[in-house]
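Bumping with the actual sequence this time:
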Amino acid sequence: MEKQEIISKIIFEAERKIKQNTGIVVSLFCKSKEVNSDNELARIIVKLCAEEYGIPIETLIATTRHRLQCEARQVSMKIVRENTTLSLKDIGLLYMAKRKGYVAELGKDHTTVIHGIKTIDNLLSYNKLVIEKYNRILTDFNKIINC
């Protein structure tokens, strides 16, 4: 087997496991049907975004500026804004980083949320990969709330 074939198989298996785990999460939420507050919906969205991008929730809400993490964070901000009645300030507070020796008020402020939403709106106008990920997250979210 060539290196490329091995790498392709590893990537395929990783994607399959992510999709499988997302399906488990969706079915668990469907069974509980206890999703009734905007904060709960927002947490579900953050979790789905972290799973779609293959990163831990802690990384998604951290203050890192790596492209992948920023994109996942910004997509989640946009979906939370569109599917809840949370204010921009409240959305920013969802992204509080918990770090030793720091004050807990490290959440994003409302201008960061606005910037994130505008950035994703721009990417959604031309970037096919972002469009696909965004649509998969919305599909999974809709399965959860409509089951």
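The tokens above came from a reply further down the thread. The two ends are 43 Å apart (CA to CA).
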